[in-house]
């Protein structure tokens, strides 16, 4: 804080104590001269007080100097002392008073400097305290923010805990429901086991009955195998007879085919010869035409006989194939027999 600021603060304090303008200016003059060692002037007085007209600080300053000179002047009234001694003594006392005043003013200045240093130290300490207070306020604000965040986190934790409790309750409900379903399934399993035991016993009885029927069927199959063996022997004899007939039929068919081929060749030769004679003899052509017609009729008859013999041969082959036992049938019969 500067000297002017300090003086202004003290003047403001004096305004509260001395509301009268003259008294206020007088006290401000004493403050400037005795406390701060500043020679008061009208401008300085008005600058600090700013009250009344410009003549008020001048009048107050005049009265202050007159009062100060009156106090500084020493008068010695003693009837036995001469006037010269009185004057010398008064001057000496005045010099002593001035020196004492100057000494007091110097000491006051030293005290003022010390006080100012102490004030500065106090102000610095106050600033440090203010900084510490601001730091503490900032820390408090940070702690409040952390507290708000912690409160929000705590609320979130409470909400999560409540949700977990609800989930746990739902899980417990589902667990009870699953336990009930397990109990029902165990009951169904017990009933299924009982039903399975009953069905198993029925199956065993059915298997025993099936074994008995299979034994009877096996005996019946053996009888049928014997009958089939006898029928097979009989059929083999019939097949052998049919094979003999087939051989005879094939021999006759071969002979007829040879005869038909020879007749066809002969007729073809005759037809060729007739064609050669067609140009010269019309009558011969007619006779040969008749002969050729007869030959063609004979050829058609021979071809019909060949077709008939082929049909009979195929019929015999089919009969032989029907009576001939196949390998697959033999295997199945052997399997049944075993």
From TrEMBL:
It comes from the Bacteria. Transmembrane segments: none annotated. The keyword Nucleotide-binding does not apply. GO terms for molecular function: DNA binding. It comes from Aquabacterium commune. Keywords: Coiled coil, DNA-binding. The lineage of its organism: Bacteria, Pseudomonadati, Pseudomonadota, Betaproteobacteria, Burkholderiales. Residues 28-136 form the KfrA N-terminal DNA-binding domain. Residues 114-195, 225-259, 285-319 form a coiled coil. This is Plasmid replication DNA-binding protein KfrA.
């Amino acid at each position: 804080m500067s000297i002017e600021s300090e003086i202004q603060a003290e003047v403001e304090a004096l305004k509260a104590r001395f509301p009268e303008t003259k008294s206020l200016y007088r006290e401000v003059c004493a403050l400037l001269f005795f406390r701060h060692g500043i020679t008061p002037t009208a401008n300085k007085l008005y600058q600090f007080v700013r009250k009344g007209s410009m003549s008020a600080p001048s009048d107050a300053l005049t009265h202050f100097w007159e009062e100060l000179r009156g106090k500084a002047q020493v008068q010695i009234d003693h009837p036995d002392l001469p006037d010269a001694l009185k004057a010398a003594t008064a001057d000496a006392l005045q010099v002593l008073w001035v020196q004492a005043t100057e000494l007091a003013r110097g000491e006051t200045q030293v005290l003022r400097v010390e006080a100012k240093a102490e004030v500065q130290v106090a102000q610095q300490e106050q600033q440090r305290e203010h900084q510490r207070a601001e730091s503490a306020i900032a820390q408090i604000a940070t702690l409040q923010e952390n507290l708000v965040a912690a409160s929000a986190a705590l609320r979130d934790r409470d909400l999560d805990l409540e949700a977990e409790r609800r989930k746990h309750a739902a899980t417990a409900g589902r667990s009870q429901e699953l336990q009930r379903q397990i109990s029902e399934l165990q009951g169904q399993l017990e009933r299924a086991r009982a039903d399975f035991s009953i069905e198993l016993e029925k199956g065993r009885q059915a298997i025993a009955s099936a074994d008995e029927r299979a034994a009877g069927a096996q005996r019946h199959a053996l009888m049928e195998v014997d009958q089939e063996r006898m029928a097979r022997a009989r059929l083999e004899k019939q097949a052998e007879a049919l094979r003999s007939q087939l051989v005879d039929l094939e021999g006759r068919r071969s002979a007829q085919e040879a005869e038909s081929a020879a007749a066809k060749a002969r007729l073809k030769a005759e037809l060729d010869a007739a064609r050669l004679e067609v140009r010269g003899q019309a009558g011969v052509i007619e006779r040969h035409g008749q002969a050729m017609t007869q030959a063609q009729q004979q050829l058609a008859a021979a071809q019909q006989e060949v077709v008939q013999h082929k049909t009979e041969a195929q019929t015999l082959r089919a009969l032989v194939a029907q009576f001939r036992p196949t390998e697959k049938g033999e295997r199945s019969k052997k399997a049944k027999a075993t």
